[in-house]
Amino acid sequence: MMLHFTKMHGLGNDFMVVDLVTQRARLEPERIRALADRRFGIGFDQLLLVEPPSRPDMDFRYRIFNADGSEVENCGNGARCFARFVLDQKLTARREIAVQTAGGNLLLKVADDGRVRVDMGTPRFAPNEIPLTADTQSHDYALDVDGQTVHLDALSMGNPHAVLDVESVAQAPVTTLGPLIEAHPRFPRRVNVGFMEIVSRQQIRLRVFERGVGETLACGTGACAAVVSGIRRGLLDQHVGVTLPGGSLSIEWAGSGQSVIMTGPAERVFDGRIAV
Ligand SMILES: N[C@@H](CCC[C@H](N)C(=O)O)C(=O)O
């Protein structure tokens, strides 16, 4: 049987997107890892599976798998690509789409210019909700990493994020410190690691070492987590532009108990099919 897919990206964070509303397939972790391979497979950071919802008040459910085959709770750039995909495939005519993810429900709006605005839900800070092993909630956790003390903030955007302040993202130890924090035993489900350079109260630069992938060109939930961290520590204003290696996102957060709003592009690259 042939399975149709679409290759998409949000700021260079790239996806294989599969419609499982009109098609049927089961992809095991080993097959996902093979398909994600950039030389022997299709090549992608995440696989997105679009499915019918399990609740009548939702339009779709979508599931997210990292390149290492692990299923995860949330994906910001993926959410925008998902919204463009269901419209382009005519799976819906609605420009306002409610979707279930493993990390919670999201509300997405596709603007006339194709940019997508996503209500990413409320950030969570309690250590057990991240999850992070810690006695008390803080915005400054000290982690022993190979005998060195590293200070970071941590929070959940549905998925777990650590945020480190750096002087310069160009010099940041993303590929050396990133994997050590990603797999640190105090993060029992591993963690996405963001390196944030604050340029002004309305602008940051960010690089993210993603759990289950490695450094990507952009991470939507990572951008939300970094901005939330900066706002809650009094370092950033409510509307912040985030420059990532693959492009820019706009993030807004009005503070405690409020949803984080992310706006950015979503692009289709090509369509293909594989035998399953
Ligand atoms: N690229 C994503 C995040 C994808 C999931 C992440 N790697 C995790 O394991 O939680 C984004 O744009 O948010």
From TrEMBL:
Task: Give the site residues for Could be important to modulate the pK values of the two catalytic cysteine residues.
Answer: H161, E210
State its location(s). Answer: Cytoplasm
Q: Site (Important for dimerization): which residue positions? A: F270
Q: What is its EC number?
A: 5.1.1.7
Complex and partners: Homodimer.
Indicate the family of this protein. Belongs to the diaminopimelate epimerase family.
Name under which the protein is recorded: Diaminopimelate epimerase
Organism expressing this protein natively: Kushneria pakistanensis
Taxon lineage: Bacteria, Pseudomonadati, Pseudomonadota, Gammaproteobacteria, Oceanospirillales
Which gene is this protein's source?
dapF
